[in-house]
Amino acid sequence: MPSPSSLAATLNPRQRTLILLALSLGGFAIGTSEFASMGLMLEISRGLAISEAQVGHLISAYAIGVVVGAPLLAFAGAGVSRRTLLLWLMGFYAAGNLASALAPNYASMLLARFVAGLPHGAYFGVAMLVAASISPPEQRGAAVSRVLLGLSIAILVGNPLTTWLGQQFVWRTAFALVSLLALATVAMLARHLRPDPDEVRTTPMRELRAFNRPQVWLALAIGAIGFAGMFCVFTYLAPTLVDVTGVDERWMPVAVGLFGVGAIIGNVAGGKLVDRLQFRAAGVLLAWSILVLMLFPLAAGSAWTMAPAIIAVGTMGALAVALQTRLMDAAGEAQTLAAASNHAAFNTANALGPWLGGMAIGAGFGHASTGYVGAATAAVGLLLWVVAMRLDRRRAARALACCR
Description:
This protein is mainly α. The protein is built from 19 helices and no strands. The protein has helices at 6-10, 13-39, 41-47, 52-76, 82-102, 106-117, 120-133, 140-168, 172-192, 204-211, 214-226, 228-235, 237-245, 252-277, 280-299, 303-314, 319-330, 335-362, 370-403. α8 packs antiparallel against α9 and α14 packs antiparallel against α15 (280-299). It is globular. The chain starts with 5 loop residues before the first helix and ends with a helix. The mean pLDDT is 82.
């Protein structure tokens, strides 16, 4: 578990707030970029003269970039100071999104989205470790949730804004805006996050050895599978609203905003739940996810029931806080690698969810069937959580027996 650093002792509340704000701005940029393709699916499809399924491939390419880049960049940067690593990662992110804004065709856009995804997981992993290390131990969950709050606000504000801009002007505006936000994050971090002379450095091989623990892999599996349902539903939200609910596509920014409201509610509640229940919070959130996703197809027939259903799906993002803090406890010396890999797991979910949902839609079950598919993945995640809890109890029982 990261402990408060020597830098933390020199920070006053205002300085700590500015650092968390800078880290959150990076999360806002990443969240805006990650979900932009979903909100602008129809515009990108028309702009590049490709099918909606191919836009889904662009989303998956970004997610695969996260899966590949998170462990690789965290492994390569294990001996680098966290401040330096954050600055390089956000600079890289700015370049990847600028390439996305300028991509002339499907092939180049596919490559650009993959490249843009590479620094995503490593940034979040390092940012959350920094947030936890500069905060009191009893506020660890709240500190992590504040970094993720940028991601939630992106869903509430950034994505409706970029969806609207893409509809009014051109979809490329969204990725150009993200590039500017990433550069602003670099400037804020360079200004407010001072180097920590007593920061504990590790080595790539030490992180790799510590990473190989069953509880680490179980937490990552819960994220990769249990979180897929949210992405399954959200990816196909636009066609679900148009074809099932009967809502005009110009209302898509409002729908994305409702999802963002749910994400913020889930983020704040998730931080408090984790500080109170620790890893048990993950089981509560997975059970909630199953309920929400099972009800989603029933709500899809009416705009009045669809609105609260979209908010409820957004609250599922609270699971990210629970799993991130779990990895901080379980990873030992592999803090950077495990924290970054958590976002690789979530983006495995981002690739898995749309793929499974697309299979159900392609088989003729309809767009609303994504709710049932997502509920099944959340149920698998809940079973993995049960396994992890049993392992914890067995380890605690062995430790108690040894002390007698």
